């Protein structure tokens, strides 16, 4: 099932990672430290800026801005903000929580963001942003954005031209009052991969929990993208990928992601196969890194070669790597089982823990 596993892996990991980057950005945007940092940057001519944001360090270098106080409107107009380099380094979980009392681990949202003057940023550009978390890092290039903020709301539009997941773009409107209700959309587009895709999701909820919903069509023979947002011309026969996610922005950022693959033509797996698959994937766990995420996959109302298909799988992901897997599939009297994991063992672990073991009993293939 190379094509099917590739589809599930691409959809799950890309949406988890895009959701993670978006969630980390939004969760930092609301903190009092970031508001203070913005005020300091606006009020000064600093070329380099550093600040401890609580759970992360922020460093901005090569700053060049054009800022004016508009006497007529009483607003702060920023016609240009440019930075050559920005680095966001998240602290290890143990370091960021040291000396914290258990009941103080969850950061409380403020009643509102104090914005003394309305702010309008017309053109913002960061040449390169590096996000460092745990043992991994991601590099984003050519980040353009504009922002409007006042005592009632904040509106942000952002586009990242180069990222590990292609081009990213989002537009979000945020109410400036607890719990900070938000709405908007986020897209990801990648043409240089084995499974080129266009992804688009609507955003909702608030800063306590962001919701994400999307509907996509999977057409493996289509060009230039095999996964695209649902179209008005959808025939009802295409494979559908339906995504619903909830992401908490407090504490360890608990997340729940549900993906439904509907009406997957078995010929997409192998041209000689007949049948239709309906799959459900559920992933639950924290996005903060270093903590396991549990994934379940089940098939329902599915057939292969005119026989009912049974498929169940349970997996554990650690930092988006496959730590453990158990899988059972059955068609008629044919059974297939797999178990193991793909995380490199430490000195205290047995090498067999970095192995996937499978067993096939194909009595009537």
Descriptive account of the structure:
The protein is mostly beta strands. The chain is built from 3 helices and 22 strands. The protein has a 22-stranded mixed β-sheet that branches. The longest helix is centred in the first third of the chain and has 28 residues, at 2-29. The two termini are 15 Å apart.
Order of helices and strands: HHEEEEEHEEEEEEEEEEEEEEEEE
User: Quick check: average pLDDT?
Assistant: 80
Count the beta strands.
22
What is the C-alpha radius of gyration, as a whole number of Å?
23 Å
SSE layout and pairings?
Layout: H1 2-29, H2 32-42, E1 48-52, E2 56-61, E3 64-70, E4 75-83, E5 85-90, H3 93-96, E6 119-133, E7 136-149, E8 153-162, E9 167-175, E10 182-190, E11 197-205, E12 209-218, E13 227-229, E14 239-248, E15 254-265, E16 275-286, E17 292-299, E18 303-304, E19 307-318, E20 321-331, E21 334-340, E22 356-362
Parallel strand pairs: 4-6, 5-6
Antiparallel strand pairs: 1-2, 2-5, 3-4, 6-7, 7-8, 8-9, 9-10, 10-11, 11-12, 12-13, 12-14, 14-15, 15-16, 16-17, 16-18, 17-19, 18-19, 19-20, 20-21, 21-22
